[in-house]
Design a protein that fits this description.
N-(1-d-carboxylethyl)-l-norvaline Dehydrogenase, domain 2, 2 domains, eight-stranded mixed sheet, four-stranded mixed sheet, globular, NADP, KPR_N, 2-dehydropantoate 2-reductase activity
């Protein structure tokens, strides 16, 4: 059974490399830059538990075109959300209709986009709860915990063993949309982290930045209720309690929410990585998803709209970090203007 990783970024390379190291047949499909990096340095995969896996360049099958999807039995889609329609077109042109397609992308709605473009194919939504930091020496470091979550389906039979052998056990969910929205609420922090220019652990250790995240989540919760969406509990506390927890003083937060800070000191958000590498971010599919949900209800999400604009303004420029106090003032000010 052959697996294709369609989108060889940090997440795609880590998952694909882990599967390769366990003996699975895998091909990575991505850009020339990543192919050249792997050709020079191979792959080093590490994680929080101290596990380390080294792969020589010759042991990492890599292709730059979607023609490599032709004989894949499982295609893991890990491209940026904005590239999902193009990915669907390439899958339709090159993959076999019997292939199982799993979206392991940020945001909500990517699996639906694939389904609309590929009627009759078996397509499942998936969620990657952990962060992967790309570091010097072609090292891809899994810096946070969590297990892959995928929509429950008989189509996964046989694949569970393959992923378990790669230390990537699959958690099947019968309520996947709720899981995805629960994850999106946590991912609203990606933009806060990017604008802080700090590692995740350092950012979340500061109450001023946590207040920003609390404001973004608190703005989203009534919109989700109005839309009939019940976000699942992804963190140790449920979504409704998260804003209160995040606003606690630093000392109390560190004591009561210690598990939220069990993050490798080197970990940063993928959005920070995008900004520092001159790439467009996925903010429109995270905070922007809350803005679109508000618009569909005839409401406003001023704080999420404001941070979306701040991220877009930072794209393609030298990032100027914002303190937690300055960022909170910008977000709270936007919300207050909306209420006037």
């Amino acid at each position: 059974m052959k697996i294709a990783i369609f989108g060889a970024g940090s997440i795609g390379v880590y998952i694909g490399g882990s599967l390769l190291a366990s003996g699975a047949e895998v091909v990575l499909v991505g850009r020339a830059r990543m192919r050249q990096q792997i050709a020079r340095e191979g792959l080093l995969l590490t994680d929080l538990s101290g596990r380390s896996m080294q792969l020589a360049a010759v042991d990492v099958p890599y292709a730059e075109t979607a023609a490599a999807l032709a004989d894949a039995d499982l295609i893991l889609v890990t491209v940026k959300s904005a590239d999902t329609p193009a990915a669907a077109t390439e899958i339709a042109a090159h993959a076999k209709p019997s292939a199982l397609i799993v979206s392991l992308q940020n945001g909500v709605g990517n699996a639906d986009t694939l389904r609309q473009a590929l009627p009759g194919w078996t397509i499942l939504g998936g969620m990657v709860p952990f962060n992967v930091a790309q570091m010097a020496g072609s090292r891809f470091h899994r810096a946070t915990g969590g297990e892959l979550v995928i929509e429950a389906s008989p189509a996964l039979r046989g694949w569970e063993t393959v992923f378990r052998a790669a230390h990537l056990p699959l958690q099947e969910s019968d309520e996947f949309p709720s899981m995805q929205w629960g994850k999106l609420l946590l991912n609203l922090n990606n933009s806060v982290n990017a604008l802080s220019d700090l590692p995740l652990k350092a950012e979340l250790s500061q109450r001023a930045y946590r207040r920003c995240l609390a404001l973004l989540i608190e703005e989203a919760l009534p919109l989700l209720r109005a839309a009939g969406i019940r976000p699942a509990k992804i963190a140790r506390v449920g979504p409704q309690l998260l804003p209160t927890l995040l606003r606690l003083p630093d000392a109390l937060f560190k004591r009561l929410a210690a598990t939220m800070l069990q993050i490798d000191p080197e970990a940063r958000s993928s959005m920070w990585d995008d900004l520092h590498n001159g790439r467009l971010s996925e903010v429109d599919y995270l905070n922007g998803a809350i803005v679109r949900l508000a618009e569909s209800l005839g409401r406003e999400a001023a704080a999420n709209r404001r941070i979306t604009a701040l991220i877009h303004a930072a794209e393609g420029t030298t990032l100027r970090p914002l303190s937690g106090e300055v960022l909170y003032s910008a977000l709270a000010g936007a919300s207050q203007k909306e209420m006037v």
